[in-house]
Amino acid sequence: MRAEGRGVCRLLDLARAGHTVYRSDPLAVGISMLAGKRGRSPYRAAVVDKNMRLSGELSGRRILEVLLGYRGASIAKRLGVRGLLREPIHIFADEARHVLHGMLPPDAVLHYMVENKTGYVMIVGEARVLKGVVDETNVLERLSGVRTYVKVGDTMSREVFTARAGERLLDASRRMVERRVRRLPIVSRGGRLRGIMTATDILCYILDTGKYAELLRCDTNVGILELMEREKVGEAMTFKVVTIGPDEDLGEAADKMLEHDVSGLPVVDHSGRLIGILSRIDVIAGLAKLKGLHTLVELVCGEPTHELT
Amino acid sequence: MSSPSGRIIDEYEPIIGRSEMQEILELAERVHGARIIHVNSTMYGGGVAEMLRSLVPLANSLGLKVKWEVIEGDDSFFKTTKSIHNALQGNMNIEISEEMWSHYLEVNEGNVRKLDLEGDVILIHDPQPLPLILHRRGGVWVWRCHVDMSSPHPDVWARIREYVLKYDALVFSLERYAPGDVLGKPVYTRFPAIDPLSDKNRSLSVDEILRVLERYDVDPDRPLIGQVARFDPWKRPLDALKAYRLAREKIPGLQMAMVGSFAHDDPEGEEWYRKVKEEVGDDGDIHLLTNLKDVEVNAVQRSLSVALQMSIREGFGLSVTEALWKEVPVIARRAGGIPLQVIDGFTGFLIESPEEAAERAVYLIKRPWMARELGARGHDHVKRSFIITKLLKDYLRMHIDLVGLAPEIRIR
Description:
The complex is a heterodimer of chains A (about 300) and B (about 400).
Chain A: H1 11-14, E1 20-22, H2 27-35, E2 44-48, E3 54-59, H3 60-67, H4 73-86, H5 89-92, E4 99-101, H6 106-116, E5 120-124, E6 130-135, H7 136-143, H8 169-178, E7 183-187, E8 193-198, H9 199-207, H10 211-217, H11 221-230, H12 233-236, H13 250-260, E9 264-268, E10 274-279, H14 280-291, H15 293-301
Parallel strand pairs in A: 1-2, 4-5
Antiparallel strand pairs in A: 2-3, 5-6, 7-8, 9-10
Chain B: H1 13-16, H2 18-30, E1 35-40, H3 47-60, E2 65-70, H4 75-88, H5 98-112, E3 121-125, E4 140-145, H6 154-164, E5 169-172, E6 187-189, H7 206-215, E7 224-228, H8 237-250, E8 255-260, H9 268-280, E9 286-290, H10 294-302, E10 306-309, H11 318-325, E11 330-332, H12 338-341, E12 348-350, H13 354-366, H14 368-385, H15 388-403, H16 407-411
Parallel strand pairs in B: 1-2, 1-3, 3-4, 4-5, 5-6, 7-8, 7-10, 8-9, 10-11, 11-12
């Protein structure tokens, strides 16, 4: 099938404004941005100064690392969590890793994303003024309705880190940080999929219904850890999970991700057993690998001239 | 030339801008007076020594108390550590005897008395000084691994891991290098960087460049391609020569520069230099240049039409960064951090084989306008992401994480 209505695009057509936080804002503002609305919060934000000059980036995982004591521990030790949350964001941010100039053509950005398997590129102008971001969603949107003839099973990740619903939230959160993943499928003892928990789910849960206030009352990060130690994964996870089968087309997976606004899909077999996971960048990189980067570039950036077979 | 303020950082302002400089000063304030000790195994040769040569004085001028210590060892120690390095980088044919492991530990133990390891943060670079952790007396210990550890030799990694687990935090050049079985401690990703003001990278006058070319019999009127890398099997120097010879069939008069140095912690260097020399034979258009001064490497890189990097493994690929900074397009394999720097078709070309490298080199040499365009974009790309001040910011943030103070506490 051939997608329609896609014209030749410029880089800024592919980019969007992206979420930003000011570098001098307190960390609490960053947490609110990344976990303010369950299911609708961004995973990453660009950290900028008041002139929109890019200073760094802040992700859900970084916030989780701070709350769990992997980062900023020396400050939390001296000031307690309340003090920590008042500290400026730029101290906890990372240098923005993937920054490209707005004058580059969009196919350069696609090459870069695929080669480095990164789903988030910040686009800047002169003096590092942020112009926008290109992320996997922008690319997937351009692939909407395309049948790729590549099976999900050929490009999914087979190594999946999981959790159980009855497990302590603290243990699962630590696994997420230490394994450097942003989602954990929740499975039964028999390996059947029960739900999913993302970094955003955890942050939203902490912020939900008075727990944030409890967190603010704590004097050290031990308070947060105690809070998370008491809770179970089942309280923070999302039960309604969108899945895909290994034999389905990558285009179908992309459409599902867009329709349900999720960043990844657990891959299950016919009996509901978890066999892999497919992220947005897996779709993009898999398509480039199996059909050629030029095909991806053509689909995303240009007038499609051929049908995939 | 230092700035009127005496702060080295001021000299970078024309490159990084005032606001970036301000950010660095703010971060440095949080760790003012912190005692940081870097330990590695060589003062000269290789990217780590080069980075430390810039980073240490830069951080000191911002109010940190940074020292750089170098461990000493004999030939058999460095032979062992090179084997460990190769095994961690994925060579599965390495065998390290118990005797070699013992000597590795003994040399480290012997160094403890000679080194100042009393600091707030002790940063141990690479596997050579790794076992110093067994003699820790205080401070936060960080292992900074510059090696591509995405598929290490399992037995060697199992031994090394015992020491790694004793560290408080780990730093890798790329996220995928971090092993999956080291859990429970902070892991940082830090891109290495080049110093645009060092002799290796500062701008040079045309006269300076011509003098160096004349010194080494390089004809400035004919095109030159080259690879800057240690003489090491992972860098594939013979592939670089093959690519050159294929390209010369299409571009008669093409010259080649193979630039490498012998670091004293790299016992394989001499052996691979001999292999390369043998392959070069009496070909007068191939310039085998060893142990050049930094400014001479700079001059040679600036006179390249195209830079090659045929390596199959790179910790990051700072030679590529250097070439791009000098507006030279790079043709390279997809090793280490190279795909972060070489955007295929936009700052250079990513290739798989010497044949493909030769084809791309010919393509660019015949189209100087295109080489110029790619080179300019490469310079711009490096300036944005791989400059030493970025690395400095990254380190300052890590020091704040590990031992930093809130300003109000410091004032009290």
